[in-house]
Amino acid sequence: MAHFPVNHPARPLYRVLSGLIGLYILVFGVYGVFETWGEGLFSRENTTALGLRTNLAFALVSVVFGAFLIIGASRRGNLGHYMNLTAGAVFLVTGILMMAVLQTSANFLNFSMSTVLISLVFGLVLLATGLYDKVGTDEHAAEERRRRNHPVAEAHQR
């Protein structure tokens, strides 16, 4: 079974990355709300915010997700770890689903291919940050390192 690294030395960098992604998404959402205010919730107009197509529904969802990611990045415990893993999976699934319906009337979030690509990149980065920002005690971290460095010896002791 795979184990998440505990107390990874680059954990602060990963938290900053997820915070920056959250900040970008929050700014995109707020700017998108101002740009799309007065249009329909699921409008298919060619309205853009920070270079990405959007509508009011997508902008509002972005505000919520951006705040979610900033809160996750500001937490010192494992809550941020689980929030990043969840957000990464959500971004990847959303990007793939929206790519599947890109040229149909089911594109209710008004995605374009550039929005799909940004969603997939953000999903991968958030998933990676979630994999490496787990927090634990020093003893737990030492046990994980020992298990990772000597997997064959662990199997023979069982």
Describe the structure in brief.
This protein is mainly α and 158 residues long.
Overview features:
158 residues, mainly alpha, two-stranded antiparallel sheet, elongated
Break the fold down into its secondary structure elements and pairings.
Elements: H1 11-36, E1 48-49, E2 52-53, H2 56-74, H3 79-100, H4 113-132, H5 138-149, H6 151-157
Antiparallel strand pairs: 1-2
Helix pairs in contact: 1-2, 1-4, 2-3, 3-4
- Which structural class do you get from the secondary structure elements? mainly alpha
Shape designation? elongated
The stretches of 5 or more residues where confidence is low (pLDDT under 50) are: none
Strand percentage: under 5%
Can you list the strand order of the major beta sheet?
A: 1-2
Q: Helical stretch count?
A: 6
What does this structure look like?
The protein is an all-alpha fold. Helix content is 67%, strand content 3%. It has 6 helices and 2 strands, in the order H-E-E-H-H-H-H-H. It has helices spanning 11-36, 56-74, 79-100, 113-132, 138-149, 151-157; strands at residues 48-49, 52-53. The protein has a two-stranded antiparallel ribbon. Helix 1 (11-36) packs antiparallel against helix 4 (113-132), helix 2 runs antiparallel to helix 3 (79-100) and helix 3 packs antiparallel against helix 4 (113-132). The radius of gyration is 19 Å and the shape is elongated. The mean pLDDT is 85.
